[in-house]
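S.,

Sequence below, as promised.
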Amino acid sequence: LALDLVLMAVAPRLRAERGEAACRTLVATVGLPESVLDDDGAWISAAAACRALGALGTALGERAIAERGEWATHPESLSTYVRMLRVASSLPDAYQFLCAHAGESTRLGRFELQREGRNRARISYLPRKDSDSEQSERCLCELRQGELSALPRLWGRADASIEETSCLSRG
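The prediction came back faster than expected:
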């Protein structure tokens, strides 16, 4: 997974609430080199992502990954969305961009977007068949949900409602 998807979405909050040392300690605790905090182009395994997300959930609360709140629009978090913001002029465009360019944040799967009305869409995550990475950890589902629900904040709107109909971890 792209490191910025995993850490940059919640690292600003951890840094603000616990300090820079907490960020560096967390990265070391989960077995990642400290240099990843300065490399927004780094990729990490699904297993490393799960370790990092688990540690972030412990430090910030279990809902911190799925519910980013105002931290979704923190300047450090926005670097993940620069390409999208250059081409998306509306929220539907943004969702379409994220689904069409999922390969920029994950090499484990892809998204399918189906519009179901003016303010409603069905977004399905589909693991790649040739991926040997385990994706049944709930934290990965919450990471994807957190990104998709927080996207409207970039347009000054409230979080999107997520209705989970199936899950790789829950079935």
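The helical segments are 3-8, 11-18, 20-29, 46-60, 75-78, 82-87, 91-100, 138-150.

Coffee later?
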